[in-house]
Specification:
Blueprint lengths: L2 H16 L8 H12 L4 H4 E3 L3 H10 L3 E4 L2 H6 L2 H6 L3 E3 L5 H10 L3 H9 L6 E5 L3 H12 L7 E4 L7 H6 L8 E4 L6 H19 L2
Parallel strand pairs: 2-3, 2-4, 4-5, 5-6
Antiparallel strand pairs: 1-6
């Protein structure tokens, strides 16, 4: 089978197995792409969307948003061609020497410091955190301090220490979010969500 046929068949299987489950406009594509990436149907229940998050994300992407990731793995997974077609870009500061030095001097994680560097960027920002809860915690602090106002926070770190608590910081807040509640997530999930938003924007709006 051709790659595109395999993907089409996979999404047909996902739709069939979801049965009569329905999701608000735009959220279905996100849920299905995450399931496609992970083969885990738990995400149909654990993905939490703030009201209007998908629409706000599409608007930001159409305006040339910068996608900030907390890992180079997530950065690698984002479809750069689709993002660049919209005038956007993707960045990750985890391997930046200045970030590493600052983190070492302060005794904090590079992930936390990378959020501080990203907060200085101009234009609409979408944060895609798939690994480090410390990145999500520091981002929440920066938002509270008024240092940054993200167009969307994708919070899907995976693990056991401070993961659930970091995600719950955003639930019910004013910042638009897509959060994977619980312990599950990962860089691949973060990239999948970004790509789902990109693809539906391109397909629906003809970019």
């Amino acid at each position: 089978m051709r790659p595109q046929d395999i993907e089409k068949r996979s999404f047909a299987i996902i739709t069939a197995e979801l049965g009569e489950r329905t999701f608000p406009d735009g959220e279905s594509e996100v849920v299905k792409r995450v399931i496609h990436t992970t083969a885990d149907f738990d995400y149909a229940d654990s993905l939490a969307f703030s009201p209007g998050a998908v629409g706000q994300a599409r608007e930001a992407l159409a305006s040339g948003a910068t996608v900030v990731t907390d890992t180079n793995m997530a950065l690698a997974g984002v479809n750069k061609g689709a993002l660049q077609a919209l005038g956007g870009r993707a960045v990750c500061y985890m391997a930046d020497g200045a970030v590493a030095r600052a983190a070492g001097a302060r005794g904090v994680t590079r992930a936390a410091v990378s959020m501080e560097y990203a907060a200085l960027l101009d234009g609409p920002l979408i944060f895609a955190v798939g690994n480090a809860p410390t990145a999500l915690i520091r981002l929440h602090e920066l938002i509270a301090e008024g240092a940054v106002s993200p167009a969307l926070v994708i919070g899907v770190p995976v693990g056991f220490v401070n993961v659930v608590e970091a995600k719950e910081l955003f639930i019910g807040g004013q910042t638009p979010y897509i959060i994977a509640r619980g312990r599950k997530g990962g860089s691949n999930v973060a990239a999948a969500i970004v790509n789902a938003l990109l693809y539906q924007l391109i397909e629906r709006e003809g970019f």
